[in-house]
Amino acid sequence: MKVVIVGGVAGGASCATRLRRLDESAEIIIFERGAHVSYANCGLPYFIGGEIEREEDLTVASPAFLRRRFNIDVRVLSEVVAVDAAAHTVTVRTPEKEYTEKYDKLVLAPGAGAKTLGLSGEGVFTLRDVRDTLELDAFIRENGVQSALVAGGGFIGVEIAENFVRRGLQVTLAEFAPQLMPPLDAEMAQLVKEELEKGGVTVRTSTGVKSVQKTDGGVKVTLTDGSSLTTGVVVLAMGVAPETALAKAAGLKLTESGGIWTDENMRTSNADIYAAGDAIGVIGPDGAPALIPLAGPANRQGRSVADNIAGGSSSNGKKVLGASVVKVFSLTFASVGRNEKQLLRAGVKYKKAYCFPLTHAGYYPGASQLTLKLLFGENGEIFGAQAAGRENVEKQIDVISVLMACGGSVHDMARAELCYAPPYNSAKSPVNMLGFIAENILSGLCPTVYVEDLNKESFVLDVRTPSECAQGGIPGAVNIPLDELRQNLDKLPKDRRIAVSCAVGLRGYLGVRILRQRGFDAADLSGGYRMYALMNRAGLLKQE
């Protein structure tokens, strides 16, 4: 059997090596248009910042290694420009010639290309592969670049902005959308913005790049708000689009989301052609077609393709929850599943819970506070989660992601048995705490209101201490410390709902339990004053 694979990196290379482990007799050829067949594309920004010092560390497996260890015929600088599905051939173009190659099974793993919106020119770069990275690095060194503009506030944009700062550049990040990091909701994305600004990045949201022009002083960038600036280098990090040209030309079916269609076994609409990686359409966390270009799913998809070519039946990586994580200076941000924006667009009813637990037991030195957000349904189903903090952030999201993949609920979060020792966790882990809060909301034990629900008619009871309130509070709130609440019930109305606020929600919950058992209509303000202050900084509060 002769298997031709178009593209290396995550999907293609994992498919090739898995197939060799399954079938020693198969003839396996990888065509890669670039010079590197298997490289750490997620590590490219860190090479620019000097965190990864050597070029060779970006290479996961060289062509020579794949030939020697796995007997795979790797042909770099070889671009597949056409597929003849009827003849079972591909047309390959190299710097020297163009030729055709026969196949029994074909695997398309061309990846996704950076969106440029027609912007290009000297000093303007994307960051898709090792070549891009080396060219960017050389341009900065050779031209003595002192400043940079990053267009786009997604994963690559945020990471390259940080690494430009580490390299000593003055950095501006321009994002056309109102917020950074699309997987996060606006209030969580505000924390990303603040951390970038704390690190020295000038962040401009609701501002895109309109045009770029090389000048004697660098690159003149005109922004969509009409302003302009001159910078040393521009990196376009405005997202990616699946490489589907080959599939279209071959008559293969595409998904509604624009990726290559595959069935549960990663087979395209042609029985002898499979596909994997960033170019394919997947099933998103809502069960609908989606594009989710992440390295983890791409690796699993490539592995599944190999299993299926070898006679098995595997769909690992076809359904994608979108678990992801990003480092922003001293903070880490992670998420999985759907966010509020997606749920609202889909018309899905949902509830949410905020939690601010410590990263490990508070009495053990070094604990810091996490910011967690959970979105869930009326039956306890988990829709998504987001987290931010200095450490143990992705750990919480990983646990929730596994529960989601297994069909778990908030009740499973509450009873999850997780490792505990004071240096690593709390006996009631952050995941448990989120589950407890969600259960209390669903059971009616603790009705909840949210910061965005408040208006000038709301009665807000702040149960923090006076010294805490002196540091800032919700305008118009009545302050009665929690420990004095039982002695001051006569100061509260029984004909109005009382939103009980504290620092983060715990004392608010205790106050709600006291009041509801005494006939008051009380609800906990989820996230307390901390969430109010965060949403206020993000400009998300109602202006009345």
Write the layout of secondary structure elements.
Blueprint: E1 2-6, H1 9-22, E2 27-32, E3 38-39, H2 44-48, E4 59-61, H3 63-70, E5 73-76, E6 79-84, E7 89-93, E8 98-102, E9 105-108, E10 112-114, E11 124-125, H4 130-143, E12 147-151, H5 155-166, E13 170-174, H6 186-198, E14 202-204, E15 209-215, E16 218-223, E17 228-231, E18 233-236, E19 240-242, H7 245-249, E20 273-275, E21 282-283, E22 289-290, H8 295-309, E23 324-328, E24 331-337, H9 340-346, E25 351-355, E26 371-376, E27 382-389, H10 393-405, H11 410-415, H12 430-443, E28 448-449, E29 459-462, H13 466-470, E30 478-479, E31 498-501, H14 506-516, E32 522-525, H15 528-537
Parallel strand pairs: 1-2, 1-9, 2-5, 9-20, 11-18, 12-13, 12-18, 13-14, 28-32, 29-30, 29-31, 31-32
Antiparallel strand pairs: 3-4, 6-7, 7-8, 10-19, 15-16, 16-17, 21-22, 23-24, 24-27, 25-26, 26-27
Helix pairs in contact: 1-8, 6-15
What this model shows, in words?
This protein is of the alpha/beta class and 544 residues long. It folds into 4 domains: 2-111 and 241-309, FAD/NAD(P)-binding domain, CATH 3.50.50.60; 124-238, FAD/NAD(P)-binding domain, CATH 3.50.50; 330-443, FAD/NAD(P)-binding domain; 448-537, Oxidized Rhodanese, domain 1 (3-Layer(aba) Sandwich), CATH 3.40.250.10. Helices cover 28% and strands 25% of the residues. The chain contains 15 helices and 32 strands. Strands 5-2-1-9-20 form a 5-stranded parallel β-sheet. A hairpin with a 2-residue loop joins β15 and β16. The chain is globular and about 90 Å long. The termini are far apart.
